[in-house]
Specification:
alpha+beta; single chain; 30% strand; 8 strands; 203 residues
Length: 203
Amino acid sequence: MPMVPAAVNATDWRRVLPVLQAGAVTLRELQLSDAPTLLEMLTTHEVARFISPPPTSVEGFERFIDWTHRERAAGRYICFGIVPAGLEHAVGIIQVRTLTPGFDVAEWGFAIGSSFWGTGTFQEAAKRVLAFVFTDVGTHRLEARSAVRNGRGNGALQKLGATREGVLRRSFLRDGSYHDQVIWSICQDDWREWQRQPSGPAH
């Protein structure tokens, strides 16, 4: 009998996240040993200023990692650690949380250490997560929110082919001030169409 490649379906990821390869990047479930590196990478001013406040200690990140496992097991949330080739620990994360029962509509967010900005690491990782979400999880619509002033984050979403739908006024509280956010979307049909085009999403 021929060997059939193991497939990840919409229920398997609740038990354990698969390990995904994206070029020279590995995407895997966070481990407690990632906590010190995530603290170093995600708490710098340039990274943290446009995201919800990250934990401020190794112990805080360990609690966050435990929480990601519980939420994944409950079927509400997925979090991949971004591990570039040659490294052992995650230098960033890509999170996806369901907005409706069954993950039909979901929201994603991401953060990666600034030393990896402009290297292509995030784009490779994000494209692989999009494939997982739309193919294996079965999501129909994936949303993202990014502060209007976050030029790098908005540019990354545009490069991934996301559609800018509008501005959510004063929707993001950071450091005691409310900021406007751009709402972006990628739908499963859009993503499937991009897969038929040699160039992929518009740049």
